[in-house]
Amino acid sequence: MTFYNSLHTLRMDLGMLTEFVGFEHFREILTTDDVFWKAARNSLTWGIVAPLVDIPLALMLALTLHARVPFARVFRTVWFTPVLMSYPVVGVIWLWVYNYDWGMANLALRAVGLGGFAQAWLASPATALPALILVTTWMFAGFNMVVLLAAIHAIPPEYLEAATVDGAAGWRRLLHIIVPLLRPTIVNLAILDFIGKMKQFALVWVMTRGGPMWGTETVATYVVKRAFEWKTLDLGYPSAIAVIWFVIIFGLSLLLTRVLQRREALEF
User: Fold this and answer.
1) Residue partners of 93: CB distance under 8 A and separation at least 6
2) 9, containing H or E segment
3) Nearest residue to 39 via CA among 191, 193, 208
4) Residue 251 backbone dihedrals phi, psi, to 5 degrees
5) Which of the 8 DSSP states describes residue 101?
6) Segment 219-251, tens digit of pLDDT
7) What CATH number is given for 50-197+241-267 in this structure?
8) pTM for this structure?
9) Beta strand ranges found along 89-183 (DSSP E)
10) Which H helix or E strand runs over 20?
11) What are the extents of the domains in the chain?
């Protein structure tokens, strides 16, 4: 249905298809729509950078809990709690954290004598997107941590015991025993993380609405703006954006799956 709508001019005020335009919307999006490409770049950056941060952090947390550190259950609860929160709640919390005057981020910098680095984190195109990526890392690190912790517990103890007997301990055991055995889990988490970050909407809508200067605009927020905020009265154009983005996500997900699985097969 979305693809069908993308081939037409769909007037919201009339509630009907008014004109067949073929692939004109697609041509305009791909050749002249600068905002779409900015939104696509932001979404791709989010989809690539976030897994590179999320999964190593989650692995570190999982290994820490597996080592039975003091208060492990408390730490597990603390890190998993953000997963249970909705995007609007998380967005409001981090709006407070990033507030220039009394937000925790700037208060912490001032407390350690780095007040010169305090800034309006969401008001600059250079820092707004990294600030949002940090929020999603905080929000989903707990989920990845729990999955990786379960995978670590599933590793046969005799493997780790044999590694210890052979003199592999610490980093050597981590890099040569644990991580290779966790690779299928890491691959699946990376793919899910990539797909999830490529369709970010609610957090952006609550915290920045795509600003400043398109600095945090994602394809999802751009579709909503074109459909309902810009008074273009044409749902055909945002439908075409949605179709293009679906094809891009689907294609990149298949490519990522193929590359990671092939690399895994070669290493084993």
Assistant:
1) 85
2) strand 8-11
3) 208
4) -65, -45
5) T
6) 999 999 998 888 777 889 999 999 999 999 999
7) 1.10.3720.10
8) 0.91
9) none
10) strand 16-20
11) 50-197+241-267
